[in-house]
Design brief:
Strand content: 15-25%
Distance between the termini: 23 Å
Number of strands: 20
Radius of gyration: 43 Å
Shape: globular
Order of helices and strands: EHHHEEEHEEEEEEEEEHEEHEEHEEE
Largest sheet: 6 strands, antiparallel, barrel
Strand order of the largest sheet: 8-9-10-13-12-11
Structural class: alpha+beta
Number of helices: 7
Length: about 500
C-alpha cells in the first residue's frame, strides 16, 4: 500500500431502373392488349403519337417482337411487325401486346434500356460502361462498410468531395447546438463546476537548503480560510518551510499549518490573508455511502491542477495502513475504496458524491509498482479516501486545540501478523506492559496473548485493521470486542480511552 507523494448504408449513385414498370406509360392512341391491332394505314403513326422525350433522337430504339416470337437478330423491326412503307418512319408506338418502355428519370446518365412486357424475352444487355460504373460503386460501398469502423465519418466526407459528379453526397449537415442548452444540476459537469472554485492546489517547500517539497490538494472548510488536506501533503513544510495555496482562478495565498494528525493523515491550514466570499464545500455523511454510489475526485495529479475524475464506491471499511515513504509514522484508516482515478497530487483533495457533498479525503492508492522508468506509481483503479465523518472530527479538534486526539483500547497489538486477527503482544514498547494497567482493555478483562477477531460488527484480521476501526470512533465510545483465548471465543465491552498528540 502506498500513499501518494504529495504529492445507414451508403446510398447508391442513383437508383437502378425497375425490372418491370409499375405504371407503363400508354400512348392515348394505343389500343389495349385485348383488342386486335388495326391494320396499318398510310398515315404515319408518328403523327398521332410523339416520340418520348427520354429517347435521344440520335438513338433508334428497336421495336420489340411479340412475346410468342423470339427475335433472331437485332433488326430495326421485328418479324411480326407491319412492314413499313418507304415513306413511313420507324414506328414509335409499340405493338398492342407490348407496353411502351418506361421513361428514364431526368438526369440519368446513360438512358436505361427499353423494358419488355411481363414474360417477354429480355432485351439486349446494357452497354458495358454503365455496368463497370455500378461495379465500382459496389466496391466503394464495401470499402465504406469495412473502413467506416476505423475512421468514422471520414467516409461520408470522401464520398461527397471526390471529383465524380455522378456520386451523391452522403454527408448530412448537422445543425448547431441549441442556444438554450443547459446542463442539469445532477450531471458531473454541473457538480464539478460548482465544486471547483472551492478546491485548491497546495505547494509545499521544506525549510532546508534543497527546498524539497511537493504538490497536493485541499478544499475550503469554512469562510475563515481553513483548508483541509492530508498530513503528508504539508509535512515537509511543517517545520520552517513555506506553503502556498492556489485557487482555480489563479490567485495564490500564503498559508500556515494549524494542526496535523499523522495517524489520521489529516492536516488543517489557514490562509494568511483569506479573501472574502469563500465557499466551503458541503460535507456529506460517509456512514450513508453505499457500494456502487457515484464518486467524483478533484485534485492536481502530477501537478495538473483542477483535474476531475469519476468512478464509484468500490468498497467500504477497507483497512488501510499507509505511509509517505519517508520512514515516518504510518497512518491508519477504515477507508472508502473508489475506482476514480487518483494519482500523486490528488492527496488531500475531496471525494464527492453525486450531489457534490464531500464524503472523503483522497489519501492513498494501491499501486502495481513504478516500472517502465517511472519515478512515481500511477492509478490502477484502487484509490482510498478517509471517510469524511472521521476527517471532520479530526479537523474540528485541530482547529480548537492544534493537536489530534486518538481513541485507544490501552493494549499493544502485533502489527505484523495477518489473517488470524490482532494478537495482543506479550510486551509493550520499551519493556512496558502490553496491556495498560487500569486501561480500557484491562478493565474489560483482556490479557496478553488474546487474539481480537471482531470489533463491533467488523471482522478483524490484523493489527492495522483493528487500529483503523478504533480510530473511526471517539474517546468514550463503548464498543464490543470479540476475542479468542485458549481456543475459546469470548466478548467484552470496552470503553475507549484517549491519547493526545502524535507520539
Amino acid at each position: 500500500m502506498s500513499t501518494e507523494n504529495e504529492g445507414t448504408a451508403v446510398p447508391a449513385d442513383h437508383p437502378a431502373a425497375p425490372s418491370t414498370p409499375s405504371t407503363p406509360p400508354t400512348p392515348p392512341t394505343t389500343p389495349s392488349a385485348s383488342t386486335p391491332a388495326p391494320e396499318p394505314t398510310d398515315a404515319p403513326t408518328v403523327a398521332q403519337t410523339p416520340v418520348p422525350e427520354a429517347t435521344p433522337p440520335q438513338t433508334q430504339t428497336p421495336a420489340q417482337t411479340p412475346a410468342q416470337t423470339p427475335p433472331q437478330t437485332q433488326t430495326p423491326a421485328s418479324a411480326s411487325a407491319p412492314e413499313p412503307t418507304a415513306t413511313t418512319p420507324l414506328p414509335t408506338t409499340p405493338p398492342a401486346s407490348t407496353p411502351a418502355p418506361a421513361a428514364a428519370g431526368a438526369g440519368w446518365p446513360p438512358p436505361p434500356p427499353s423494358v419488355p412486357a411481363w414474360g417477354a424475352p429480355l432485351p439486349p444487355a446494357p452497354p458495358a460502361a454503365p455496368r463497370r460504373r455500378t461495379g465500382g460503386l459496389v466496391a466503394a460501398v464495401l470499402v465504406a462498410a469495412l473502413v467506416a469502423g476505423g475512421i468514422g465519418g471520414g467516409i461520408g466526407y470522401w464520398a461527397a468531395e471526390r471529383g465524380d459528379e455522378s456520386i451523391s453526397s452522403t454527408t448530412v449537415s448537422s445543425g448547431e447546438a441549441p442556444a438554450s442548452f443547459k446542463r442539469e444540476p445532477g450531471t458531473v459537469a454541473a457538480v464539478a463546476a460548482k465544486a471547483l472554485p472551492s478546491v485548491v492546489t497546495i505547494q509545499a517547500k521544506s525549510g532546508g537548503s534543497q527546498g524539497e517539497g511537493g504538490t497536493g490538494t485541499g478544499f475550503v472548510y469554512d469562510q475563515e480560510g481553513h483548508i483541509v488536506t492530508n498530513n503528508h501533503v504539508v509535512a515537509s513544510a511543517a517545520d520552517g518551510g513555506t506553503l502556498s495555496v492556489t485557487f482555480p482562478d489563479g490567485k495564490s495565498y500564503d498559508a500556515q499549518v494549524v494542526g496535523r494528525a499523522e495517524g489520521y493523515d489529516v492536516a488543517v491550514l489557514k490562509l494568511t490573508n483569506a479573501p472574502k466570499g469563500l465557499k466551503p464545500l458541503p460535507l456529506g455523511d460517509s456512514e450513508k455511502v453505499a457500494v456502487g454510489d457515484s464518486t467524483i475526485a478533484i485534485g492536481a495529479p502530477f501537478g495538473l491542477s483542477n483535474t476531475v475524475t469519476t468512478g464509484i464506491i468500490s468498497a467500504k471499511n477497507r483497512p488501510v495502513a499507509s505511509g509517505d515513504g519517508s520512514g515516518g509514522s504510518n497512518s491508519y484508516m477504515s477507508a472508502l475504496q473508489t475506482d476514480a482515478s487518483i494519482n500523486p497530487g490528488n492527496s488531500g483533495g475531496p471525494l464527492l458524491d453525486a450531489s457534490g457533498a464531500v464524503i472523503g479525503i483522497n489519501s492513498a492508492i494501491q499501486s502495481a509498482g513504478s516500472g517502465f522508468g517511472q519515478s512515481q506509481a500511477g492509478s490502477i483503479g484502487l484509490g482510498f479516501a478517509i471517510p469524511v465523518n472521521q476527517a471532520k472530527n479530526v479537523a474540528q479538534q485541530l482547529i480548537r486545540t492544534g493537536k489530534p486526539v486518538y481513541p485507544v483500547i490501552g493494549a499493544t497489538v502485533n502489527m505484523q501478523e495477518q489473517g488470524e486477527g490482532a494478537t495482543i503482544a506479550s510486551q509493550g514498547s520499551g519493556g512496558t506492559p502490553s496491556v495498560t494497567p487500569d486501561g480500557p482493555a484491562a478493565k474489560a478483562g483482556l490479557k496478553a496473548g488474546d487474539v481480537i477477531t471482531g470489533f463491533d460488527d467488523h471482522q478483524i484480521d490484523s493489527g492495522p485493521s483493528l487500529i483503523s476501526e478504533i480510530w473511526t470512533h471517539k474517546p468514550g465510545d463503548q464498543v464490543k470486542i470479540t476475542y479468542e483465548r485458549d481456543g475459546r471465543t469470548s466478548t467484552a465491552t470496552v470503553t475507549l480511552g484517549e491519547r493526545t498528540g502524535d507520539s
